[in-house]
Amino acid sequence: MTLKIYGIPGSRAYRTFWMALEMGVPFESEPVFYAKPESITPEFLKANPNNRVPAIDDEGLTLYESMAINLYLARKHGGPLAPTNLAEEGKALQWSFWAMSELEANSLQLAMHRMFLPEGQRDPAKAEAANAALQKPLAVLEQALADQPYLLGDRFTVADLNVAAVLSWARTVKIDLGAFPKVEQWLTACLGRPAAGQARKGKAA
Which tens digit of pLDDT belongs to each residue from 171-183? Predict the structure, then answer.
């Protein structure tokens, strides 16, 4: 049975598509989009009764929450993206939770008021406030990358993928990275990976 991923690339499901493609895990895409009620099936609601994407069905195991899914896939399939010891696992958990608590809300607020909302509903003040609020966590990320190219050291891992996926709209919505050259270099490397580009199509290569 193939891994089934519920969602579309223009949602948080992008993170799971990217992870599966990085790891070479075959998957089936089930497009679920809140604006198309007909795409919300009983099978999807069984996988995530919260009616949010992504969710997966992996040989009968259902999971939701993008960070949990990606950490699960890393643990199950191993390889270079997976933590190699308890310390790395702790750091991968730390950075994944940090991305959700420190980056996501303001990144989404910025995206909404600079790109996603209709022009007349956008509030430049809210966008600027979100951009300003992101400067503190970006400084934390800059410090973490001061002496190493990736969050766990010398190799790209699930920790990098999870954090970079949250910041994947950075250039589109003009998050100010001017004071954070290490972050900009790291984000360019992460989003420049072939699997990151392929994930925007929401299907296996």
Answer: 788 788 889 999 9
Question: What values do phi and psi take at 61, rounded to 5?
Answer: -85, 120
Please say whether the beta carbons of 13 and 28 come within 8 A: no
Which two tokens mark 137? 């966590």
Tokens 């750091």, located at residue: 91
* Per-domain residue ranges of the chain: 3-80, 86-195
Question: Given this model, what pLDDT does residue 204 score?
Answer: 66
Q: How far is CA 4 from the centre of its chain?
A: 18
Q: What CATH number was assigned to the domain covering residues 86-195?
A: 1.20.1050.10
DSSP labels, 107-148: HHHHHIIIIIS-GGG--HHHHHHHHHHHHHHHHHHHHHTSS-
- Beta carbons within 8 Å of 133's beta carbon, 6+ residues apart: 106
pLDDT at residue 14 tops 70 = yes
Between the alpha carbon of residue 79 and those of residues 6, 17, 118, 121, the distances in Å are 24, 17, 43, 45
CATH 3.40.50.300 fits domain 3-80: no
> Looking at residues 97-108, what average pLDDT do you find?
94
Q: What percent of the chain has pLDDT over 70?
A: 98
Question: pTM, whole model, 2 decimals?
Answer: 0.93
